[in-house]
Amino acid sequence: MFLVIIASYLKLAQVRLQQRHYPVSEALLRDVLKSSPNNRQALYHLSLLFATTNRSYESIQTATKAASGCSTPRDFCAFLHAHLADLLHTNAMLELAVQNYRKALDLEPSLLKAHLNLGAIYHTQVRHLLTCEAYVAAYIQQVNCLQTHPLIAAIRCSNTSNYSHAWEHYSEALKLEPSNAILLENIYKLQRVFKISSESALEDFKVVLEFLKTLMSHVDPDVSFRYSLIFILIFSIFEYADSEYF
Known about the structure:
This protein is mainly alpha-helical. The protein contains 13 helices and no strands.
C-alpha cells in the first residue's frame, strides 16, 4: 500500500508539473521525500521543477543527490547523470558537467545527447581532438542523426582542415534534409575555403562542381530551390574565373 501511495503521488506531481502548477507539484514531491528521502524519481522531478522556476542552486543540489551513487538500473542512472550534467552545463560548471556526461556514457554508451553535449563543451574549451571524438561517437550511435553530420563537418573544417571528410558529412546531412538552408550556406562557404587554401585550384574547383551536381540530384525538385543552386554554381564559376589561378 505504501508503494502504491508513493507511486500515485509521483504521478500526480508529474502531471501538476506539466500543467505548471508548481507549488502543488513541489508539495507532493516533498511529501514523497519525507517518506522516502532517497527516492530518485522524486529527486529528479524536484530538480526539474527547481530548474524550471529558476532556482539553479537547489536544482543542481537536488539532481546531485538523485545521481549520487546510482548504478542500477543503468539506463535510469545514466539519465540522472546526464540530467545533472545538463544543469551544470547550463550554469557554466563545465568540468563537473564533463565528469557527469562521462559517467552517463560509462553507464549507457548509446546516450546520443550526452555525446553531443560533451562535444559542445569541448568545443567551447577549444579542445579540438576531444570535440571531434565526441561528435564522431554521436555519429556512430546514430548514423542518420541530422545533428551529427554538420557538427563533424564544421569541426573538421575549422580545426583540422580535413575538408574531404567535411564534404562527406555535409553531403550525408543534405540527404537527410535536402532543403536545409544552413547546410547550403556552409557548403558554399566550404567551397570558398577550397579555393582560398588550395594549391591546385583547378582540381578543387572540379570537386566543387561535382559536389554541386551531386547536391542537385538529392534536392527536392522545387524550381526556385534548383535555381538557387544554379546561382551558387554560376557565381562560383565567375569567382574562379576572376581568381589569380586562371
